[in-house]
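Per your request, structure below.
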């Protein structure tokens, strides 16, 4: 526990440091430096930025300390402590360093609440700094710094790249610290997402909504039985796993994506049931029952289509409002595979047959396409052709391309294909890249919200403390 004299001394030190930086900046203003080359100009800019960043950090510390000492925040701290899942006891004020977005670590005095019965000499991981939690400060980082670190971890190619960019900005963090900040940031956001029952600020009421899902590919580092390696490391397998990705977007009366509505994107490794649970949550918060038209579009993956009817029923959507559509280009690809199985045809004949069936699909003549496939289902490849025939029969009701084109709705799932590439492939998939499951989940969430243009919503979730009260 500390006395008020220590806090008063810290305040006087802060005021002195702030004045010193102000004097340094004033001296730079009064004595202009003559620069004669790009290198000298860059050096001047860096020197000025270092001063202003130091001043910014000191000002943040000053305002932060004032907030922590205010009666209003102290009252909120007491209320948070009363609501905490475990009984807590005031253990007095301690001095700790907080990293700011300007790249400096500044000291503040904050009250620490420990678990009742915990030894004072023990570690403080079992307690909580209630004032910092209320201000969204976790892992000793201000919200702005934690958001920036997490954003760079999501948008750049690796954590090493994120660390290098931060270092160039004057923020000295090692790669392990970058990883810890970003992954915990994502974990808090996911917990808050699961608890939050509030609707989105924007809704799909009166709009035409397109919903799609698909799977990507990445390699997970999974523990393997057996002795450790000669270097003492655990053995692992690098099995390919399929993260499930979803997208919800809105199209206008011409079938073009509405720029005024940021799409909803998310991804998970937890399997199809989890991704459909996420879909249900998002659609409920977007007020999907008030939408004008709802289109589910995807490839022929059975895990998608066997869950769509249950989702529609759970959401309470009327049948007249909902359309299910098999991606047109996957259907055409199947036609090409059928034609390729006719070894007795020339290349020109295969192309002509596929083009004819493609036109029939667009005209809504699905039965004629099925009949045409059935006619050529003979010879040594008849079994393979029959498999494709059954595929068209199974999805016949989802090939209403003529109707959807009349309604000016998309007939291709290019949006989800592009989303899988941008969210998964360009960040998590690559030669010799292996992920831990928790690490992959974190990057999937961060990158999904970043690519969707909903980063501010993720920041709100990651800085909330409500999930901690449910722990």
């Amino acid at each position: 526990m500390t006395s008020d004299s220590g806090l008063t001394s810290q305040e006087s030190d802060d005021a002195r440091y702030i004045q010193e930086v102000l004097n340094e900046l004033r001296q730079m203003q009064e004595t202009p430096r003559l620069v004669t080359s790009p290198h000298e100009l860059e050096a001047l800019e860096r020197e000025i930025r270092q001063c202003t960043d130091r001043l910014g950090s000191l000002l943040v510390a000053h305002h932060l300390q004032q907030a922590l000492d205010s009666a209003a925040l102290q009252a909120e701290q007491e209320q948070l402590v009363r609501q905490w899942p475990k009984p807590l006891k005031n253990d007095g004020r301690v001095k700790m360093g907080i990293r700011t977005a300007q790249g400096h670590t500044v000291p503040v005095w904050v009250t620490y609440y420990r678990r009742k019965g915990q030894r004072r000499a023990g570690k403080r991981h079992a307690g909580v700094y209630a004032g910092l939690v209320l201000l969204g400060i976790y892992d000793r980082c201000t919200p702005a710094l934690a958001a920036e670190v997490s954003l760079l971890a999501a948008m750049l190619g690796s954590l090493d790249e994120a660390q290098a960019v931060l270092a160039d900005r004057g923020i000295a963090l090692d790669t392990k610290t970058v990883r810890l900040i970003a992954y915990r940031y994502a974990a808090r956001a996911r917990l808050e997402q699961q608890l939050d029952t509030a609707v989105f600020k924007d809704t799909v009421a009166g709009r035409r909504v397109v919903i799609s899902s698909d799977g990507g590919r990445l390699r997970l580092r999974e523990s393997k039985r057996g002795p450790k390696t000669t270097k003492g490391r655990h053995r692992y397998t690098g099995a390919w796993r399929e993260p499930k990705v979803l997208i919800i977007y809105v199209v206008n009366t011409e079938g073009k994506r509405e720029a005024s509505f940021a799409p909803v994107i998310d991804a998970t490794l937890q399997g199809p049931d989890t991704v459909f649970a996420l879909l249900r949550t998002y659609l409920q918060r977007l007020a999907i029952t008030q939408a004008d038209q709802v289109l589910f579009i995807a490839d022929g993956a059975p895990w998608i289509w066997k869950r769509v009817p249950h989702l529609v029923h759970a959401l309470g959507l009327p049948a007249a409002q909902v359309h299910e559509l098999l991606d047109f280009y996957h259907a055409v690809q199947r036609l090409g595979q059928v034609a390729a199985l006719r070894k007795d045809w020339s290349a020109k004949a295969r192309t002509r047959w596929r083009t004819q069936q493609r036109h029939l699909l667009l005209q809504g003549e699905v039965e004629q396409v099925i009949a045409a496939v059935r006619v050529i289902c003979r010879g040594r490849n008849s079994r393979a052709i029959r498999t494709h025939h059954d595929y068209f029969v199974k999805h016949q009701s989802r090939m209403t391309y003529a109707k959807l084109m009349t309604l000016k709705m998309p007939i291709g799932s290019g949006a989800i294909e592009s989303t899988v590439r941008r969210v998964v492939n360009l960040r998590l998939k690559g030669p010799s890249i292996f992920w831990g499951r928790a690490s992959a989940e974190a990057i999937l969430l961060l990158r999904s919200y970043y690519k969707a243009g909903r980063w501010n919503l993720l920041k709100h979730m990651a800085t909330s403390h409500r999930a901690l009260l449910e722990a």
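The chain has a mean pLDDT of 90.

Regards,
D.
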